[in-house]
Amino acid sequence: MISAIQFNAQVPASVVITVAVLLFAIFSWLEWKRQARFFYARLIALLIAILSLTAFVLRPAYSTNSDSAGVIVLTPGYNKSSADSLKKIYQHYHVVATEQLDKINQLLEYKDQIRFVLGVGLPAYVLPDSGFNFLASPLPTGITQLQVPAKLIANRKASLSGVWHGEPGTLTLIGPEGKIDSTSVSAGSFQLSFIPQQPGKFLYELEIDGKKELLPLEIHAPKPLDVLILQQYPSAEIRYLKNFLIDQGHRVVVRTQISKNNFRFEFGNRAPATLSRITTEALSDFDLLVLANESAALDEAAIKDALRTGLGVLWLPSENELGKPPLGFEFVKVNADTALVNFEDQTVTLSAWPVNARKDFAIIKNKNRVLAGYKRLGAGKVGYQLLTETYPLIAKGQAKIYNHVWTNVVETLARISAQSTAMKITNSFPVYPDEPLNIEVLATNPEVYLDSTRLPLLEHAVIDNLWSATAWAKENGWHQILSATDSVTTNFFVPDFNSWVALRAANLQKATKEKAGGSLKFEADKLSYKTVSPILFFVLFVLAIGFLWLAPKL
After folding, report:
1. Number of other residues whose CB lies within 10 A of the CB of residue 496
2. What value does the mean pLDDT take over residues 284-299?
3. Residues contacting 159, CB < 8 A, separation 6+
4. pTM here?
5. Phi then psi for 484, rounded to 5 degrees?
């Protein structure tokens, strides 16, 4: 179907047409004056000659709209009647079914021609930025959303959450040690909790109605901290805290003041050393400073300087310090000297100082008050613990609650380690073999490898030291991204293509909906002009002039 005509003349078309009209008028009058035979035939021949000469100068070009370049993509779950209707309406469109492709990457050759997507959808990288319609299908039965903590630590409670789409059932989490947790699910959200026992890369399982999905989880070892405890006099609370920290693998120094200039030292997981004076330089070797029973007033200037450079400080107040708290804290008195603390499905009552804090970030709290909190000072955090006697929990067989309380406080306040390289994969799980992995790297002049292959990096146009890379994992299983400059690693798992079908479908549907709609001028819609051969006009001109010459002689 001819849809457009354009002229390629060197002279404006209006000038050429005006001259042509004048020439036709003049020569028509001359032909009428000749009083020869075949007047009307000569007039038609004259018109043909003038038009041929005009077209020869204007050099017209025509185009046809190639409807056949449009593409309809059928993905799993598409509605057959909708597909048949589209095929009838757009008979010249090319139909591609993803189930008949060896790899989804084959769609890249049609990327700018996709007009309709039916079914669960497509990955973002094979879709045009906009300008197509999406006819979504219902999601298949299964887990359609899954949230896993960014970092799992051994012997720390972790929770998995998500959304189940399907009939009611029992969802079970299975680990290396067997069944860990289970919950009844219907259509909607769910949550499972567990405490990983040891670091490493593991394949857990989520099972429902006899169907299992492999859940790859990397468990990290707790980061050993260097902890300095300063106390004016020994106490049971500090003794248990010291033992807890040592059992957790932390490197601990306890300094107890015996007299004005005499101290007693205890060491755990580290070699003995002398620490008689508290200076900013000395504190730079520690991640956390614990100030117990009236030791907060000592060397406060050095402590504040160390806080500004990232040190974490935990203040365990004595009763005498509550009236005039150090380090800028503000408290208000309350009547209760005990507090209820919730841990999973348990509620315990613990002794606590009868005060509440103002304007601080909470670490542990109940509905009435903050029991452990902190504020920032420079690059560091300074916090407090108002629970006074937590060690009886161990004697009562509630060591998990004790561990939970102190782990939260210690890890929240400790110095944040500075890594020279930070890496993350921005794709949603799962990513299958031969699909692009989008990797972000924050570093100065990084050198990054996927397994043994070095990745080409592109620096962000605006943000310094932010790099991106695209990589492809060829096989199922665990893979590693490595920063060669400082040995920082990120591990990820590539599952089998037939796994996590519902989650994959939900991810694809979301990606396709985000890009669908809008308007886009496809290459297929752009008009390709073809110039009419000037020989045609030359031949017509010669024939018309020849007739005009011959007609008076007949």
Report:
1. 12
2. 83
3. 149, 191, 192, 193
4. 0.70
5. -70, -20
Mean pLDDT across the chain = 87
Q: C-alpha dihedral over 12, 13, 14, 15, to 10 degrees?
A: 60
Give the list of residues 6+ apart from residue 554 with CB closer than 8 angstroms, or none: 37, 38
Considering only CA atoms, which of 454, 428, 393, 400 is closest in space to residue 508?
A: 428
Which residues contact residue 485 at a Cβ distance below 8 angstroms, ignoring those fewer than 6 apart? 420, 421, 443, 445, 446, 447
Task: Indicate if the alpha-carbon torsion angle 536, 541, 546, 547 is positive or negative.
Answer: positive
Top pLDDT among 45 and 408 is at 408
The terminus-to-terminus CA distance of the chain in angstroms comes to 43
- What are 268's two structure tokens? 């755990």
362 CB burial (10 A radius; 0-12, 13-18, 19+):
middle
Q: Token pair for residue 433?
A: 């073999």
The number of CA neighbours under 13 Å toward the Cβ of 438 is 8
Q: How many CA atoms lie within 13 A of 168 on its CB side?
A: 2
Name the DSSP letter for residue 429: S
Q: What is the pLDDT of residue 2?
A: 44
Distance between CA 408 and CA 380 in Å, rounded? 16
CB 171: neighbour CB atoms within 10 A?
A: 20
Most confidently modeled range among 6-15, 67-76, 348-357: 348-357
4: confidence class by pLDDT, cuts 50, 70, 90: low
pLDDT at 488 over 70: yes
Mean pLDDT of 529-538: 77
Sheet of 528-531: strand order equals 2-7, 60-64, 528-531
- Positive or negative, the CA dihedral 143, 147, 148, 150 is positive
